[in-house]
Amino acid sequence: MLSGADSVSLGFDSHCHLHFHHFDEDLAKVVNDSKKAGISHILIPSIDRATAAKAADIAEEYDLYSAAAFHPEHLPEESTEERDWAALKEVLLRSCTVAVGETGLDFHHKTFAPKKQMHWFRKHIKLAEALGYSLIVHSRGAEAEVLEELSEPLSVPVILHCWGGDEQLTDTAVSRGFYIGTDGPLTYKKNSKYRRLISRIPRDKLLVETDSPFLPPEPFRGKRNEPAYTRRINMEIRELWGGRMSIEETSYILWENAMRAYRLHPENRRADILYKYGDTLYVNITSSCQNNCSFCIRRTEDGLNGYFLKHSEDPSDSLVLSTIGAFPIENYKELVFCGFGEPTLRSDLLMKSARAASARGVKTRLNTNGLCTSFLRDEQVARLLGCFDSVSISLNASGAREYNRICPSSVEDSWEQLMKFIKLVKRAGIDSQVSAVSSSGADLQRVKAFAERLQMSLRIR
Ligand code: SF4
């Protein structure tokens, strides 16, 4: 193993194919060795439907990240492409999957006609933008064509993996703010021209990847590449950057670049808009809420079941709608607007989203704290309820005093507003229930009796 590696705490192998059979026998050891070498983070890109699922399985098991896409040399057959595309999107819904990749163009091998490659590259670009996922691009013998295709500004980070463009193309990529990935060949003695090229890339845009099991750095040429060898490439970069920084500082800068590129960094982390639990799909459109309930998961967690749900800034209407539009929501029993906050605070978006789901024949449910009567008129509430098949209202108490104790709110007369909302729900005749959290400290027998008086069914959570 590499000397002195144990002292390094943060490092990122930004592109490592742990899903390939080369790692089947000793995967746990490989991941463990990489951790010992200070490679704390690994992203596993994939090349088709099967490897996307396998990459996500590995990422979940070892607490890593994955990406899903069809590589330009592994495009689906026409007879199965619709099914394969839908299956790929299902993988993108998994909590560990944070990017679309690797997609792109390969005019070196030309396994598929350029026209077909371009068609799929464009589909992937559109999908990444619709979901707000980073885009990992493969280009071989097609660097100019890739940049041509990416000439319009994208709303998501672009990662040019294993970049092989010339100086002019590299400058173009840099001018567009793309991240550029470099690999083991950077360490090869004869590659001084390539080293000069990599020196042109701003320090905050360079990513290190092993592309394991391929392209091992010196002195491991001829062997299987591994994520632990990221450190060897980092050492080469330290030299390119003048050799004055410590290897730990160099690794940290490169780690932070990858965190930014994949939107994992606390400052720019992308929260999941859709998350699944069993056969139900949940929609997370806001992190705001008028309440601060004693049992609220937001008090202690950033998410649920591996999903990161805390929006640093609420997602735009268009991102929410395009995310719902891109996923095969028909595969789920129900679409529940629940969020990591109170969805009715974005009532216009909520209605548009619910209508879009209903138009596709998907059942919709609203989970709410029932306080929207404090800022919506009765007819607006009725219109909102008309967009849903059912509604679940957080009750949690049998009276105002208990409610204020368990669910302190910025809405002054919150209990009265909640009662008003329940009346409007009953008037609308919509399928409805109230709920209470068993661990909230409420007197559940009284809550049950109160729900009966309201003639509402009660679900204890
Ligand atoms: S109403 Fe829901 S989201 Fe808001 S604080 Fe209470 S539990 Fe949390």
What does this structure look like?
The protein is of the alpha/beta class and 461 residues long. The chain folds into 2 domains: 257 residues, Alpha-Beta Barrel (TIM Barrel); 187 residues, Aldolase class I (TIM Barrel, Alpha-Beta Barrel), CATH 3.20.20. The protein is 36% helix and 16% strand. It contains 15 helices and 17 strands. An 8-stranded parallel beta sheet has the order 1-2-3-4-5-6-7-8, with helices on both faces. Strands 9-10-13-14-15-16-17 form a 7-stranded mixed beta sheet, with helices on one face. A two-stranded antiparallel sheet has the order 11-12. Helix 2 packs parallel to helix 3 and helix 12 packs across helix 14. It is elongated, with a radius of gyration of 25 Å. The two termini are 50 Å apart. Bound molecules: iron/sulfur cluster (SF4). The site of iron/sulfur cluster has 11 residues, from loops. Iron/sulfur cluster (SF4) binds next to loops.
How is the topology of this model organized?
Blueprint: E1 12-13, H1 27-36, E2 41-44, H2 49-62, E3 65-68, H3 81-92, E4 97-106, H4 114-131, E5 134-140, H5 143-149, E6 158-161, H6 167-175, E7 179-182, H7 192-199, E8 206-208, H8 230-240, H9 247-261, E9 274-277, E10 280-283, E11 303-304, E12 307-308, H10 317-326, E13 334-337, H11 347-359, E14 364-368, H12 378-385, E15 390-394, H13 400-406, H14 414-428, E16 431-436, H15 444-453, E17 458-460
Parallel strand pairs: 1-2, 2-3, 3-4, 4-5, 5-6, 6-7, 7-8, 10-13, 13-14, 14-15, 15-16, 16-17
Antiparallel strand pairs: 9-10, 11-12
Helix pairs in contact: 2-3, 4-10, 8-9, 10-11, 12-14
The structure holds iron/sulfur cluster (SF4).
The site of iron/sulfur cluster has 11 residues, from loops.
